[in-house]
Structures are given as structure tokens and as C-alpha cells.
Design goal:
The chain is α/β, with parallel strands linked by helices and 458 residues long. It contains eleven helices and 20 strands. The relative contact order is 0.11. Bound molecules: zinc ion (ZN).
Length: 458
């Protein structure tokens, strides 16, 4: 069994080496951005896969600076510009949006990667897929929608509709698959409840979530699964990288599509490479459909990411099929627990246990404790009974304080909810985080990626 896995890994590595070599030859000659980077690192000829660890990392800030310095398109383009047929933009939640250009071939590559997500989730040509995103420059909507269509599904765009109208489309068309951010999945459930609609008995059989950490958080997953009466799947991708993470289908974790992406895993503080954890390191039992937490570490796992957890690292990816605008050794900012190949589903690929746990660039430090918004979010979901919340991070005289406003679900005792949340923050983070109760319906609801944390500087 182990030998067989090792042989499959070897063949995978050989395919990656071949693809990387062919890409590097074109990129080294024709792509000004990477040619300059690689030459500065001493590579006068195209690097091979064996050279990868000696190539410089690529960061989002660097790509943004390149687009500023080389307007209007930047220099990470391998082909003459008339070969490109699409441009999309990052959401710009961390700075200026990046613009990303695709050729017909690289766009098709992106869709093929998305198909792996549909396969992992068990979606087939008979499915009717409702994509509950706006119709904007965000790449996630377009790729999910077009990939569903290519799979032979009935694809339904859900842009420019109110949540109530979306619920109507789901009912009228008999949608079987919902694609949405986890935040918006929860919002659909909330509005359905207000309207007296029980989505657990709707036609939805599967939900697929991406765009933000959350679908891998056990409490969120459970809420979505119960609310929709559906199987809940995680997906991960990024405008500049492609759709790199697809659900296992057997266990509750996110495989990395290594046919198309080379994976590295880094210690965030030292920048040193980390070795994937053994397959036994999974906090979730991959043989069960439901997430099961084990042992003392499970509590920390359920709480999401904490910088003190030594098993968390940042994912670094190189894509192999987007030659027109590639990323090589890209620091994704996605933080999680990478496990070595050996999943019971039989795929020979590595996976993130519990999906993406956090975004590296969202972290803030409160009285010496490193806190990710996704940790706070996971704890709020664990307590449950919260319709919406808003966190304010205040910097005052070099002190950082967090305050939370929470809108209870109808019928929840506000005082009890406040005490339970404060108590959990104290126990898990050793922080006193004051919780204020907000009036019903007073806090902003989100359609795409939630933006619940605001930073206030004097
Ligand atoms: Zn698997």
C-alpha cells in the first residue's frame, strides 16, 4: 500500500517536473517579470523543478508594485497582449486590487481545476447549480458558473437578486447545488427562517463554499449541513493563483490539486520550509462523513488558528497551467495544517486538514496574543445563536483592544450569550474581549466575503 502510494507520488513528481520545465522555458524567454526575478537570483537559463527551492518567492505586494510600475498591465505576461481575452480583479480587501489576465488556454485551465471541486463534491451533469454571487470582476463567480456549464449541469446565475429572490430561484428551478461563501450560506438560512421556509427540506443536496476561511470550521459546517439538509464541501482558490483546493468527498478536508500546483509549506515567522504532518496527524476522522474532534488538541483546532500552534504554516504555490500569467513560489497568505499524502479516499495528493484556517495578513496582536479573525469567528460559531456580529480592533497608545458587537438570533437570551462568548475568549485566548449586544437587524449582512473586522487608528 505504502509502496503503491510512493510510486504514484513519484510519477506525479515526474509529471510536475516535465510541466514546470516546459513552462519555465517559455517564461524565462518571454515573461519580463519572472525573467528579471530569476536572473537576479542567478538563473541565466530556465530553472528546472530541482531548482525551485532556490528561486525567490513571489508576493502579492510585489505583483501590485509591478502593476503600478508597469501600467496598465504589469509585466507578468508571457505572450503578446492580443492573446489575452479576459481580465479579472482581486477583491482588494488587502490593498489595491490586482488585475489578472487570461488567455483562452489559461482560462480553460482555471475551469478544469474547478471541475476537480465539482468531482470531489460528487456533482454531475444532472445537477442544477445555483451560484449565489454578484456578477462582478471577482473571478470565483465566473469560474464556478462556467465550470458547472462545461460539466453539463444547468448553471444558474444569482447576481443582482435579493436574498428572498434567490430563495425563490432555488425553489422554482429545483437547484440541487448551492455555490456561495460560507457567510452567505448562513445568510440564506437566516432569511429563509424569517420567511418561514425550511431549506432542510429543499431540493439542495450539496453546498460548496469558498472565498473565505469558514467552510472548514466544524461549527459553521454543521450549521450549513443542518440548515440545508445537505452535504457541505470546501473549495479554495485565488484570482492570481487559480482553483487549487478541492474537497475530499470522503474526509472533511481540502486536497491540493497537485497535478496542476506544486505545493510548499512554510513556517510563517522564520520563512523556513516545513514538512507535511503525517497522515495520522489529522484532527478529523477521515473515515466519517461528519467531523469528529479527538483529544486535547481538538479544542484548539475547533477554535481555528492561533499563532502559537506549531502545526500551522503558510501555503506556497506554483501553478503549472497558467503560462500566460503564472505564479511561481507564491506566498498565498493561506494558513493551515498540511498533511502528507495517504488519505483514505485514495488520492495521492497532500491535503489541508480542516481547510484554510486563516489568512496570514489578517492577524493582529492583542496584549501579546496573536489573533486571527477566523479564530474569533470559529468561537462565535461554536457558541452559536449569533445572527451577525462586528468586531472593532482599536489601536490606542500602542495598545490594541478588540470589542465585539453581537446580534443574537431571535429567541436567544442576550445576557447568557454575552457571558458564554466572553468566557470562551478568556479560556481559549486568555483575553478579555468585551461583548456588546446589538439590536436585531442592526448589523450589516454580507453577500460575498464578510468584512466584519474594522481597524480603528487614532
Ligand atoms: Zn481524501
Amino acid at each position: 500500500m505504502r509502496d503503491r502510494l510512493a510510486r504514484r507520488r513519484q510519477r506525479l513528481r515526474a509529471r510536475q517536473a516535465d510541466r514546470f520545465g516546459r513552462m519555465a522555458e517559455q517564461v524565462h524567454v518571454h515573461n519580463p517579470f519572472y525573467r528579471a526575478k530569476w536572473q537576479a537570483a542567478g538563473f541565466d537559463s530556465p530553472p528546472t523543478l530541482d531548482d525551485l527551492e532556490n528561486l525567490p518567492f513571489t508576493t502579492k505586494a510585489e505583483l501590485a508594485a509591478d502593476q503600478d510600475a508597469n501600467p496598465p498591465r504589469g509585466s507578468n505576461l508571457t505572450f503578446p497582449f492580443d492573446r489575452y481575452v479576459r481580465v479579472h480583479r482581486t477583491s482588494g480587501t488587502t490593498g489595491k486590487p490586482l488585475r489578472w489576465f487570461d488567455t483562452p488556454a489559461s482560462w480553460q485551465w482555471f475551469l478544469d481545476c474547478w471541475l476537480e471541486t465539482y468531482r470531489g463534491a460528487g456533482v454531475g451533469p444532472d445537477d442544477r447549480v445555483f451560484v449565489a454571487f454578484g456578477f462582478g470582476p471577482f473571478v470565483g463567480f465566473w469560474t464556478a458558473f462556467e465550470a458547472a456549464q462545461q460539466l453539463g449541469c444547468l448553471a444558474m446565475p444569482g447576481g443582482h437578486l435579493s436574498t428572498e429572490q434567490r430563495l425563490n430561484v432555488i425553489r422554482e428551478e429545483g437547484a440541487t447545488v448551492l455555490v456561495a461563501t460560507p457567510t452567505y450560506g448562513l445568510r440564506l438560512l437566516e432569511v429563509a427562517r424569517q420567511l418561514g421556509v425550511d431549506l432542510a427540506v429543499s431540493s439542495i443536496e450539496r453546498t460548496i463554499h469558498g472565498g473565505e476561511p469558514g467552510a472548514g470550521v466544524p461549527a459553521v459546517k454543521r450549521q450549513l449541513a443542518e440548515g440545508f439538509g445537505a452535504r457541505v464541501f470546501d473549495h479554495a482558490g485565488a484570482t492570481e493563483v487559480g482553483a487549487w483546493g478541492h474537497p475530499c468527498g470522503v474526509g472533511e478536508h481540502l486536497h491540493i490539486f497537485e497535478e496542476e500546483f506544486i505545493v510548499e509549506w512554510l513556517d510563517r515567522t522564520t520563512g523556513e520550509p516545513l514538512q507535511p504532518l503525517g497522515p495520522g496527524a489529522s484532527e478529523t476522522d477521515p473515515t466519517l462523513g461528519e467531523l469528529v474532534e479527538h483529544g486535547p488538541r481538538a479544542r484548539a483546532g475547533a477554535a481555528g488558528a492561533s499563532e502559537t500552534d506549531p502545526t500551522l504554516g503558510e501555503l506556497v504555490l506554483t501553478n503549472l497551467g497558467r503560462i500566460g500569467s503564472p505564479v511561481v513560489r507564491y506566498r498565498t497568505g493561506d494558513v493551515g495544517r498540511l498533511c502528507a499524502a495517504g488519505c483514505p479516499c485514495g488520492r495521492p495528493t497532500v491535503y489541508l486538514d480542516g481547510g484554510v484556517r486563516a489568512r496570514a495578513d489578517d492577524m493582529f496582536i492583542v496584549r501579546g496574543v496573536n489573533v486571527y479573525p477566523s479564530s474569533i469567528d470559529a468561537m462565535i460559531r461554536e457558541v452559536g445563536g449569533v445572527a451577525e456580529y462586528r468586531a472593532t480592533v482599536r489601536e490606542r497608545r500602542q495598545m490594541v483592544e478588540v470589542e465585539l458587537e453581537v446580534e443574537p438570533e431571535p429567541g436567544r437570551a442576550a445576557g447568557v450569550l454575552r457571558l458564554r462568548l466572553q468566557d470562551l475568549f478568556q479560556r481559549r485566548l486568555s483575553l478579555r474581549i468585551p461583548v456588546r449586544i446589538a439590536a436585531t437587524g442592526s448589523l450589516t449582512r454580507y453577500e460575498l466575503k464578510a468584512n466584519r473586522f474594522t481597524l480603528e487608528r487614532p
